[in-house]
Amino acid sequence: MARADLRRSDEMRRIQIITGYTMHAEGSVLIEVGNTRVLCNATVEDAVPSFLAGSGLGWVTAEYSMLPRATNTRSPRDISRLKLNGRSAEIQRLIGRSLRSVLDRRMLGERQIIVDCDVLQADGGTRCASITGGYVALWLACRTLVDRGLLPRIPLRGQVAAVSVGIFGGEPMLDLCYQEDSRADADCNVVMTGTGDFVELQCTGEERPFTKEELARLLALGRKGTAKLCREQRKAIGDAWNL
Amino acid sequence: MARADLRRSDEMRRIQIITGYTMHAEGSVLIEVGNTRVLCNATVEDAVPSFLAGSGLGWVTAEYSMLPRATNTRSPRDISRLKLNGRSAEIQRLIGRSLRSVLDRRMLGERQIIVDCDVLQADGGTRCASITGGYVALWLACRTLVDRGLLPRIPLRGQVAAVSVGIFGGEPMLDLCYQEDSRADADCNVVMTGTGDFVELQCTGEERPFTKEELARLLALGRKGTAKLCREQRKAIGDAWNL
Amino acid sequence: MARADLRRSDEMRRIQIITGYTMHAEGSVLIEVGNTRVLCNATVEDAVPSFLAGSGLGWVTAEYSMLPRATNTRSPRDISRLKLNGRSAEIQRLIGRSLRSVLDRRMLGERQIIVDCDVLQADGGTRCASITGGYVALWLACRTLVDRGLLPRIPLRGQVAAVSVGIFGGEPMLDLCYQEDSRADADCNVVMTGTGDFVELQCTGEERPFTKEELARLLALGRKGTAKLCREQRKAIGDAWNL
Amino acid sequence: MARADLRRSDEMRRIQIITGYTMHAEGSVLIEVGNTRVLCNATVEDAVPSFLAGSGLGWVTAEYSMLPRATNTRSPRDISRLKLNGRSAEIQRLIGRSLRSVLDRRMLGERQIIVDCDVLQADGGTRCASITGGYVALWLACRTLVDRGLLPRIPLRGQVAAVSVGIFGGEPMLDLCYQEDSRADADCNVVMTGTGDFVELQCTGEERPFTKEELARLLALGRKGTAKLCREQRKAIGDAWNL
Amino acid sequence: MARADLRRSDEMRRIQIITGYTMHAEGSVLIEVGNTRVLCNATVEDAVPSFLAGSGLGWVTAEYSMLPRATNTRSPRDISRLKLNGRSAEIQRLIGRSLRSVLDRRMLGERQIIVDCDVLQADGGTRCASITGGYVALWLACRTLVDRGLLPRIPLRGQVAAVSVGIFGGEPMLDLCYQEDSRADADCNVVMTGTGDFVELQCTGEERPFTKEELARLLALGRKGTAKLCREQRKAIGDAWNL
Amino acid sequence: MARADLRRSDEMRRIQIITGYTMHAEGSVLIEVGNTRVLCNATVEDAVPSFLAGSGLGWVTAEYSMLPRATNTRSPRDISRLKLNGRSAEIQRLIGRSLRSVLDRRMLGERQIIVDCDVLQADGGTRCASITGGYVALWLACRTLVDRGLLPRIPLRGQVAAVSVGIFGGEPMLDLCYQEDSRADADCNVVMTGTGDFVELQCTGEERPFTKEELARLLALGRKGTAKLCREQRKAIGDAWNL
Question: Would you call D201 and C201 a contact, using CB atoms and an 8 Å cutoff?
Fold first, then answer.
């Protein structure tokens, strides 16, 4: 079964991670995965949500949104309907949990880092690109805190990256574009650490249930993809990574 | 590691599924899993959402909400904050996808069935109880359509049930109560069919990443739990199941 | 004129008041009046609304809501329309005023008790059932405060209960069910104390005005009904009532 | 017990009803009762709410609002809090029911008349002034329909007017101003027809319950007040009343 | 080209400024410009917005709204759509900026004055009437502060008034009524000080662009109109102006 | 008085207009003016707002928003406050009017073009950049309609571009950056056609009023700036401009 762009079933799309894309955020990244393009800006705030006040612990949260014309047909803005899009609500909770899984909340101290993921152009895999790019933006914001002498070192225990995998035309495939995703029988968003452990796993068989064996093949693909993405993250961060 | 209620690590809590709990809904179920108590009411509507109009296909959707004092401390109602709770948004999307996975949308025809899951009392596992109880409410609403001569038979291709599993004190455990859930290192919500295939899988390692091996053990527990729940569903439906 | 359920015109429906229905609330009651079923949960909070801060006075307020399928046709949730239902707004103000009328605000001290009235199943008289059941939930929450040594005794000066009466088919009738209520010429919600005084009186002649004589007959029926309800309240509370 | 403005206990404040106060509405009235000043504008719309479509019946509804500085301290606008004030919700439902009680819905036909009651200055009794003035605005809007040849005659079966009465310093008093109302033990809003029958009765004893005898004295005062208001309504409408 | 009301092209409509129109506000004005009628109430609050806390500076802000039937067809209230009308948002920002331009924020001290402009009847030029009348209400509220000994003198550096001018039928005209405004090729809202300097200038050529020469003629008319309005403001304030 | 970036007082910042920036929109432009960066996407819809249905006329409207971290400190999203930012409301109305001023609504026919202006990075002049870039996006969307054979030619009667000018340190300056704008005594947003006529003019003297002479100097600068911008627009469109 040939893919739209002639990739192999286990081949990622072209990845580009541009750091410092905007000038105001403490950490700013534009990530492109194929035609999907997400702007990830990390903001450091000195206050934490009220449930953490006085705890000495920090927090990372995420917001996710698509620009109205990031997609093929225009979607109205949330504010025009006065409701946060249900899909956005689900996705931003996933991004937040994923990023927090590698956070050393005590080392961060009573600060909150908000990672805004705004999709400029969508072609499948926007939540995974948000996690992968959001991690780099978060790292850069932490780096800013270190550079300002506010933290001794980066309060992250490892890397985290995400990729979508799915069964399309009966075959497991890595990194689905929109056209593939919309016709997949089942798909997983696999969030893994740099050491190959799981952080989040969201698998859906809305079209049909999937078997244990299919799951195993999907997870193997996911492991391959996230390993590749972790290499790209380190490349984007550059020499600072090893400091 | 002893559990709060002295259950074995692979033991479900007491399950009770009361059908016909309220008199107005086409399908009504009160499900109790331990102290968790969810009222699931299925409503049949003759119209479908606009994206399906004229398609000949039906739809199933879900709404999930907790009563303000379903939990240990009172939560304000969504309407008082003018925002759908983010957790509720995530959960009701999961319930809807899970129920649709066994739906024969063509056989249902251009009708929508809304499954309202209202948590009267929460003690962990409310989303799983909603899926398990919601399936029975959906089945009963379909039965009402059959009884009224509007459908030839139940437009469901199988059963679907859900259970939470998690790693708590280093050990995989089945069917977490709130106290266990809030201290778990990682947990999965496992949604499976009556034949043991996966419908949805949501695993989270917010406290720490989890390994492939841990995942395998969690999924095995999930399979055991959902099999038990499917038996309870059939028992609740009773003789009508075999018609 | 025969009533749907063959009751006499001055006969109440079957009343059941179950205390301790849920486990988290300081006071919890499930009240059933015929087919009407309302869950009343009372929550104690240590803060009062800002207009009472520093006054030494307490407050009781109520929230009222119907589950979407409490009625014959499904009503959308308030949050989906982003507006508190006008009828709910009117009713919860009535419940709050009624309960406050017997409250010793100074004895309660700077605490707020919120009484959530959620209608699980509606068949007429839901606001009256909410007041009658809400009173018991409030009493139980006060009892919890006494048991915890936070109050010397129950800060309530008496009982309060409510019943609907109406003119239906030209005849005054007690405790209207939905079918009767929807066809009544005029109806009153009568809120009275255990000693037979008025707390609130809301009479409406939307279909036609009503006379002074009709009002007198309705109020006499209301007195009879609330007396019966007060007995049921004391029975539900049990021996603790006399302590 | 002397009243703030030295009125007798059964004496109304000065009443002024100015018709044609604004130029756009089909019926426009500025009503002043003492210092309370309400602008009542009635708008005729050719459509009815969906639940009446095709029924051949008309509808009257009301909206009530206070300007931010109608009161002694400024209240934020509803839109700034994104919530309809609960008190306004309760009041506008009362106004709507009161006006509909004398409406011949079949004669009006499938039209809706919206009566906007905007309080320019508040000094107690704003809901009653809204009903009394709203009736005249509604009458004038109907008159406009008659004048345009769209209706054969005014589709109103009688008059409706409202006054507040209350127990203040132990004594029943007619037409409470704000200072009296805020310190009343109990108060009633009495809505009556021109023939002295009841349309709505809302009595509240938030400070203390009230007796049957007190109620009787309050209703007698209410009857006196509404009779006076009905005379003022007819005077404001003028000769057209008898056509 | 004759105007609807036979005015000359450089002639203002009749202006009336009634001070003390309502009794609660610190400054209250009803301004009429032709058939346009706006109630301007200024409220003094002891707190400033958070961005000014501790700065020693005061603030003036405005809110603008039209009653539903201020116009020829009824507009729904903002709260019924849950959105502040976009036009209102634009206008109230203009009013606020205009009034602040003559405010001595240091002399006012950490107080906020809110100027509510509610349009009772609209016939073009409501935003200009709001600025002109709002200035007088603001002046009166400041006067109240002086009278109470809270300020040494009026903290306003000058007058501000506004008028609309437009090109209608090819000719520049002063003070457009609604009928003229809705058919104008271009129009300006000119906000000027009592000494003839500009405070705000908002010119729009939605129908067609306008030239530098047309702009010059419009501004000259605006200067004439605002000079007249400033005289009316001083007349309304009366002798107090010179103190 | 030296400018932050050593520009002359009549010198524009570097301008870059990238066409085809995203792949889904009918017209897509990324405009950069100095550090200000706005993504302008034009969407063609086949329906018009209801007030134009059946008129044969088209419509152009705009939406404007800033990403949360487009600015130096993070702004919460509109949806988290449930309110469209007042400044955004004002700006998007300006953009819409400006673009409509050169639109041939009859030639466009019953179609709506929505121009979304999303500020990725802000450094002053975002509304002007939105108009200038939005015009190119609108032109490209029209071009798409021509290319698809749906329109005979571009339904725009000319060009429109905008620049901010202001008095800063006593001197009129062209194209203010944020640092200059926030300290300007007065500033104008000048919207002009390619032929040097005015489309919109919004001048504000919040800090102090400004004179007729100052206005004249500001407008001359604005004319110079918009002429330059119009050249850049034509350059970005390229050869297609002359077809």
Answer: yes
Residue recorded with tokens 């009592």:
E194
How many beta-carbon contacts under 8 Å exist across C and D? 100
Helix (H, G, I), strand (E, B) or coil at E136: helix
Q: How far apart are CA E34 and CA E164, in angstroms?
A: 13
Average per-residue pLDDT for chain F: 96
B86-100 and A86-100 helices, crossing angle to 10°: 110
Structural contact between residues D60 and D112, judged by C-beta atoms closer than 8 angstroms: yes
Which residue in chain B is spatially nearest to C75 when comparing CA positions?
A: B43
Sort strands F160-168 and F186-193 into parallel, antiparallel or unpaired.
Answer: antiparallel
Among F183, F151, F144, smallest CA distance to F166 is for F183
C79, C200, C207, C214: best mutation site toward chain D, by most D Cβ within 10 Å? C200
Please give the C-alpha separations between residue E98 and each of A211, B65, D89, E17, E234, in angstroms, as whole numbers. 68, 48, 35, 19, 18
Percentages of chain A per state (helix, strand, coil), in multiples of 5: 35, 30, 35
- Confirm if D113 and D141 have CB atoms less than 8 A apart: yes
Q: What is the mean pLDDT of residues D131-158?
A: 97
Cα–Cα distance for residue pair B36/B126, rounded to 1 Å? 6
Q: State the DSSP string of B193-224.
A: ETTS-EEEEEEE-SSS-B-HHHHHHHHHHHHH
Angle subtended by helix axes C212-237 and D212-237, to nearest 10: 140
Q: Which two tokens stand for residue A205?
A: 């068989």
Query: What is the tens place of the pLDDT at every residue in C171-198?
Result: 999 999 999 999 899 999 999 999 999 9
Q: What is the pLDDT of residues D37-70, one digit of tens each?
A: 999 999 999 999 999 999 999 999 999 999 999 9
| Gap between the Cα atoms of B158 and B138, Å rounded | 12
Please provide the size of chain A in residues: 243
**Confidence tier at A169 by pLDDT (50, 70, 90):** confident
- Picking from A24, A78, A115, A123 by the largest number of F CB atoms within 10 A of its own CB, the best residue to mutate is A24
Q: Order of strands across the sheet with D15-19?
A: D15-19, D27-33, D36-45, D112-121, D59-66
| Cα(E67)–Cα(E77) distance, integer angstroms | 8
**Treating both helix axes as pointing N-terminal to C-terminal, what angle do E212-237 and E126-147 enclose, rounded to 10 degrees?**
40
pLDDT tens column, D87-127: 999 999 999 999 999 999 999 999 999 999 999 999 999 99
Shortest Cα–Cα distance, B179 to chain A (Å)? 18
Prediction pTM value: 0.96
Q: D54: burial class by Cβ within 10 Å (0-12, 13-18, 19+)?
A: exposed
E128 is written with which tokens?
A: 């200009």
Antiparallel, parallel or unpaired: β F27-33 and D15-19: unpaired
Picking from E155, E153, E121, the residue whose alpha carbon sits closest to that of residue E138 is E155
Instruction: With H, G, I as helix, E, B as strand and everything else as coil, classify residue E189.
Output: strand
D75 burial type by CB count under 10 A (0-12 exposed, 13-18 middle, 19+ buried): middle
What are chain C's partners, defined as 3 or more CB pairs within 8 angstroms? B, D
The model's confidence at residue A240, banded by pLDDT at 50, 70 and 90, is confident
Mean residue pLDDT across chain C:
96
Per-residue pLDDT of chain B (243 residues; tens, 9 = 90+): 678 788 999 999 999 999 999 999 999 999 999 999 999 999 999 999 999 999 999 999 999 999 999 999 999 999 999 999 999 999 999 999 999 999 999 999 999 999 999 999 999 999 999 999 999 999 999 999 999 999 999 999 999 999 999 998 889 999 999 999 998 999 999 999 999 999 999 999 978 899 999 999 999 999 999 999 999 999 999 988 886
Task: Confirm if C181 and C206 have CB atoms less than 8 A apart.
Answer: no
